Amino acid sequence: MAELLTNKLGVDAAELHPAATFEELDVDSLALVELTDIIEGQLGISMAEGEIRKGATLAEAAQALDIHAAADR
Fold this sequence. Notes:
- By secondary structure, the protein is mainly alpha-helical.
- It has 3 helices and no strands.
């Protein structure tokens, strides 16, 4: 998740920590849609659009990603 945020969306790596929200990181809803597409395209993990919301923390998003990765196996 950290690599995608920094390399694909230009988020400063120094700002990443588990309690940071996407809103605090200035990741808007359009970027979240793009992130969902990247997760599906590059990682093969299906997530519903809008499942990761602006107010979610990185820890919450990582947990959702883990759950979907396990379900997709």
